[in-house]
C-alpha cells in the first residue's frame, strides 16, 4: 500500500489500523480493546492486552530457534574491549540479573534507577527490570549529583544500579562518589546500590547498602519473565522542562512494543538478522527505543559503542564500526556527522572502509541542515533520511518512506524531515489555532489521539501533561516546534517555537538563518540566537565554527557570511553581530544550547543544564562574548 493510503487509513480508522499492527507482537494475551480513554482523560492503547517487553526482546527469539544469533556487540575504543553476546547468552545474563534484583525485593511496579555508561551491563539492567515488571529510569552516566538527586526524589527507586566509572576521551569519571553525594542530598533513600566494578576504577562499597554486581550474579539463578498489562509502565525517562524541574515521561509496555516493531519494519526496513546501529546513548530516548528495545524486539543485532565520532581514534571511527560489523542501517545525530565533516571535509577516512552492507543513514535529534545532508549524500552515495521525533513520542513522527508502495525509492528533500508517519496527524496552526496554507510557517501540532508508543503520562504529575502539551491548542498535542508543510506534503521543522525572534515586528526563524550560514563551504556548524535590543526588540546574533584547513581570514569570512544573510533573507535579518568561535555549547545528545547562549549574551545569570557535554565551553564563551552586551 502507498504511504499516503496507509497514512489516511491510520487517521480515518485508528483502531482498525493499530489492531492489525498489534499482530506483530507475541502477546501473552491479545488485546480486544484497542483504544480507550483513561481516568486522566488521556488515551490508552490495548488496555486488556498482556505481555512482557523483555520476553519480546530476548526469550521469544530463543524460542524461535535464533538463540545463537548475535544479539549485542560491544565495541569500546576508549578501553580497547570488544565483546559479542548471542540471544541465548544475553537472555541468560538478563534472567540472572532479574533474580539479583528480586533478591533485593524488587517486584512489579517498583522503580530502579540505572546510572551507567555505554556498556552491556546497562542493557542487561534495563531488560532485567522489564522482565520483573519493574520500572526503570535510566539517567545519563556522569550527571551531576544534584541532578541525580532530583531524579531519585521523583522516581523513588528501591535500587540504584551503576558502574564504578565512565570513560571519556581524556578522562575517567568515577560514578560512585556522585551517587553517594546524590543519595546524601536526596530526601528519598534507595534500599540498595548494585555496582559493576570496571578495571579502571574500583569503587568503595558501603556495607549494608552497596552490593557488588558480579557477586550477586554468581549466586543468581535464571528466572522467567512476568506478565504485565499493556498499560503498565515500562520506564520513566526524564527530559528537561521549562520550569527547571525535569519531566518524567512514562512509556507503557503494550503501545511501546507495537510502535517499536512497527517502526523497525516500516520506517527502517529492518528484518531479523540485520545489524542496526543507533549511535547514541542509553541515557536518551534513542538508546531506549533503538539500541535496546526496538532492535532486539525485531530480532536484529544491536551495537553498544563506547566512543565518539572523532578522536577515538579519528574521524573514521563510525565508518570502521559499520565496516567491521556489516551494519545495515546507521542512525545518529547530525552533530556527529558535522564533527566528522569538520575533521575530514573530503571524506578521506570513508574511503578506507568497505561499506557495501550499509543501506541507509538516518539522522535525528536536531534538524539536519542541508549542507550536512548534501555532504553525506555526496560522500557516501547512500539515502540520507532526516526524521523527526521527540522523547515524548518515543519514535518517529515524520520520515521519508522506504518506497512508494511499488518498490520505487521516494525522494528525500534537503531540510525536510519527510512525510508524517502513519498514526501521526501533523498539522500547522497559527497563533489563533487556525490551519495555515502550504509553505507558511506556524506551530507544528499533532491532532489527538497520538498513536501507540507515545507518552502515557508525566510521572507523579499527570496535570503537567495537560498544561505542558494539550492546553495551548485543545484537541492537539503541541510539539513546541515550528515549521511548515510544503505543497508536496513534505514537513520542514525549523526549530523550537521559542527560536523564532521578533525583529522590529518581523518574525524571523533562526533556523532559516542557520541554514544560510551552514551552506557556506567554510562553516562546520553554527547557531543563531535572538538577543535583546532596545530599538528593535530583538536582533539576531550568529556564532560560527569553521572547518579545519580553511585559509580565508576570519574578517573576510565574517564579511562574506553577513552578506550572504542579507542576500538570501533580506536586510531585516542583517547579522551585525557575527563571531567565529572554537566550539558551541551542546548537550551530550548533540543539541546546541540556544537558551543558554541567549542568557549569556543578554547578561543574565546562566543556567548551565545538567545535560551539557563540556561545561568548559561555557567558560570559554563567556570570556569571548563578555563585551557583546556592552557593544
Share in β-strands: 15-25%
Termini separation (Å)?
A: 59 Å
CATH architecture of the largest domain: 3-Layer(aba) Sandwich
CATH fold annotation of the largest domain: Rossmann fold
Strand numbers in spatial order across the main sheet = 5-4-17-16-18-19-20
By CATH, the superfamily of the largest domain comes out as: ANL, N-terminal domain
Q: Count the beta strands.
A: 33
Work out the helicity level: 25-40%
Write down the CATH class of the largest domain.
Answer: Alpha Beta
Mean pLDDT level: 91
**What gyration radius follows from the Cα positions, in whole Å?**
24 Å
Shape: globular
Enzyme class: ligase
Keywords: Ligase
EC number: 6.2.1.1
Domain AMP-binding enzyme C-terminal: 512-591
